[in-house]
């Protein structure tokens, strides 16, 4: 099973320290970490996001999640590949932050088809992270996307990716 954890920090200046302390304590279960917040010449957002790719260690993952849950000022979402159930994590709210997880089996046709779609919808992808993974004993690629822009186009990207064979799609919404 592959688990991706999403954390929204509502006020990173106040909440990031406690969150970081817990993530450091459980670093052995975290294989990949991506953190981001909006920064421009005029604005440095207090809101931040952390995406964690966790090891296939259910007990340790649950310890991390259970320690994060009581923290005030954060919202936690999960994506699970290989768990059977496919549903969005979080409410579908207009203008919200949407994270798409794509697990693509390492077959040439699959990789080419996924890349074509990501290129076609590139204007709606703000952040992209790729990680090598093993899924049911086979090589796979895990791609995490932060989506932006038109909701209809984001939905079309998800629909088009989901239609591909050997591609598994999950979504987190904050």
Give the domain tally.
1
CATH superfamily grouping: ACT-like. Chain A, domain 2
- Share of residues in strands: 35-45%
What letter string, H or E per element, gives the SSE order?
EHEEHEEHEEHE
User: According to CATH, what is the class?
Assistant: Alpha Beta
Distance between the termini: 23 Å
What is the CATH fold-level name? Alpha-Beta Plaits
Q: What is the CA-atom radius of gyration, in angstroms? A: 16 Å
Q: Would you report the number of β strands?
A: 8
Query: What is the share of helical residues?
Result: 25-40%
Structural category: alpha+beta
Biggest β-sheet strands, sense, barrel: 4 strands, antiparallel
* Number of helical regions: 4
User: Low-confidence stretches at least 5 residues in length (pLDDT < 50)?
Assistant: none
Shape: globular
**Average pLDDT for all residues:** 88
Describe the secondary-structure layout.
Elements: E1 2-9, H1 12-25, E2 30-36, E3 48-54, H2 58-68, E4 74-81, E5 98-105, H3 108-120, E6 125-135, E7 138-147, H4 151-162, E8 167-173
Antiparallel strand pairs: 1-3, 1-4, 2-3, 5-7, 5-8, 6-7
């Amino acid at each position: 099973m592959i688990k991706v954890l999403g954390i929204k920090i509502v006020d990173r200046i106040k909440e990031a320290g406690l969150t970081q302390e817990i993530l450091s304590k459980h670093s052995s279960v975290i294989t990949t970490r991506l953190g981001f917040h909006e920064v421009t010449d005029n604005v440095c957002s207090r809101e931040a996001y952390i995406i964690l790719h966790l090891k296939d260690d259910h007990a340790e993952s649950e310890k991390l999640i259970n320690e994060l849950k009581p923290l005030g000022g954060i919202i936690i979402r999960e994506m699970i590949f290989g768990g059977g159930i496919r549903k969005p994590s979080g409410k579908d709210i207009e203008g919200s932050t949407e994270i798409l997880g794509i697990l693509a089996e390492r077959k040439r046709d699959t990789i080419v088809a996924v890349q074509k779609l990501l290129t076609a919808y590139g204007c709606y992808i703000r952040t992209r992270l790729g990680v090598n993974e093993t899924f049911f004993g086979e090589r796979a690629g895990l791609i995490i996307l932060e989506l932006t822009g038109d909701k209809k186009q984001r939905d079309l990207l998800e629909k088009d990716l989901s239609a591909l064979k050997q591609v598994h799609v999950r979504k987190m919404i904050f």
